[in-house]
Amino acid sequence: CPFKAARKSHLNRHIRTHSGLKQFECPHCAFKTPREIILQKHLKVHSAGATAASVSNGKAAAQRPPECAFCWDAEPTLACMPCGHLSMCADAVCIAAVMDERQCLACQGHVEELLEAAEAKVILEQSGRRLYTV
Asked: What is the pLDDT of residues 93-113, one digit of tens each?
């Protein structure tokens, strides 16, 4: 592998991508990751999910803007392809989490790439499909 790093910690982190070692596990679900920062962002899903579930007024829930399916911190701007789920923000940690697993967080389908919403919409419409907001 031609990867080079200025810091030993960055090299060690990269080596874990080759080993498949996922030493950080979520205590609430089966999610595992090789990076602690990714686990920390993932844990927000569980606390944010509890908050979202406590909203009993359907109208209030519908007015909330869509959120990244991984970190719940930002509006999604990236679509998983080929499924077309607009569910990811452009944060590097969120992108790394999805691309490491190659699995859409909305449908658990295989992710070939993440595309900006406008580009994904054009490609999907050319094949008679549409972009799905999660």
From this structure: 888 888 888 888 777 788 899
Q: How far apart are CA 68 and CA 48, in angstroms?
A: 11
| Beta-bridge partner residues of 32 | 25
Provide the b/e sequence for 73-108 (b: ≥16 CB within 10 Å).
ebebbbbbbbbbbbbbbebebbebbbebbeebbbee
Cα 79 to Cα 85: distance, rounded to the nearest angstrom: 5
Report the C-alpha dihedral over residues 31, 15, 76, 112, rounded to 10 degrees. -90
User: What's the predicted TM-score (pTM) here?
Assistant: 0.56
Length reported for the chain: 134
* β-bridge mates for residue 69, sequence order: none
61-71 confidence digits (pLDDT tens)? 445 567 888 88
Helix H or strand E segment including 78: strand 78-81
Amino acid at 93: V
Q: Within the chain, where are the H helices? A: 8-19, 36-53, 58-63, 92-101, 117-126
